[in-house]
């Protein structure tokens, strides 16, 4: 009997232990649902695209969402991180060429505005305005020209200019009040509001912040900003630039620089983000999204990617890299900018043999077909300055303007507009250019002005 009692007690103890264990693993219902955290997790912001050194751990800015891109897994990545500038080498380049327009390139979905209805209304309004313009007014809209202060008001009315670009000398000995008054006088003289642009990239290219009258210190380079504060610093800097420029009456910043450069000996290096293609793409995306939010015009430059080429201000540069290198590397920042809603793309004067061995990119129909058909860009395409030696060594002022339009440019950055505008009008008269081609470009330009809110 004693034995049976002992067994019974053991069984009771085992049963108690079993029930206790079950209570530990069985979840109980919450007593108060209001205490539950129902916040949706924040999506990944794409920081994995950037390979950081331990000292270089900046996170993408969180105030503006930064969607990640999915570049080809085989994208060329320069070995930048963990190396000194002297140890960094350029991305791999090739010497092969491809005849004609390259094919087989992955396409990118064109960026769209938040409202299709708005886009349609902009298009309709721009088309309406174009239908009432004279041919001279249309051609004038296609010129984004270097300001001549002495004749600024007269040039606007004589040539019906699309906009002015200001350089460092234009801000010398000026004040914020003086510049604002001057730019307002040009806008008042123009029947169609002007694009007013400046290259305020930060670092080596600052047109106005180098003067204490406009900012106590010049804007820092993208590299220094990122090193000291990551993408939050990039975003804050972009916002500050937008507020400063818009406050003066400047509605376009010719930025960001999307060229991929990791070699300190490259001409473009100090103006670039200084990191590989994926990192540069995240930089471009951050800047474009902030500029779009602030309603200041953005310009992606210098398509198709400057690489290690020499300065085209001083002569012709020839790029012999294979087309595949651009697809997997140099195009990525431009794709990111397009997806983020960039307003315009500026095309360099480099001769890129894998795309067109006979023409500078800015004058090449094949290069412009890549922008439109392969990358799916629907905004404004502009040339780099047609007064640069790379163009002067290639062709005459008059021919350059006509060739630029035939190639597919909408806006021509020009210093010699007083000879180039008559040359374009003459080409239209002779039938070398047709009015439909002009109308398409002017419509895009006016859509841009409508989106910026400078045109009603």
TrEMBL record:
It comes from the Bacteria. It catalyses: Hydrolysis of terminal non-reducing N-acetyl-D-hexosamine residues in N-acetyl-beta-D-hexosaminides. GO terms for biological process: carbohydrate metabolic process; peptidoglycan turnover. Residues 25-122 are annotated as: Disordered. GO terms for molecular function: beta-N-acetylhexosaminidase activity. Residues 134-446 form the Glycoside hydrolase family 3 N-terminal domain. Residues 1-25 form the signal peptide. Residues 25-36 have a biased composition (Polar residues). Its EC number is 3.2.1.52. Residues 92-114 have a biased composition (Low complexity). Coiled coil: none annotated. Keywords: Glycosidase, Hydrolase, Signal. Residues 46-58 have a biased composition (Acidic residues). Belongs to the glycosyl hydrolase 3 family. This is beta-N-acetylhexosaminidase. It comes from Anaerocolumna jejuensis DSM 15929.
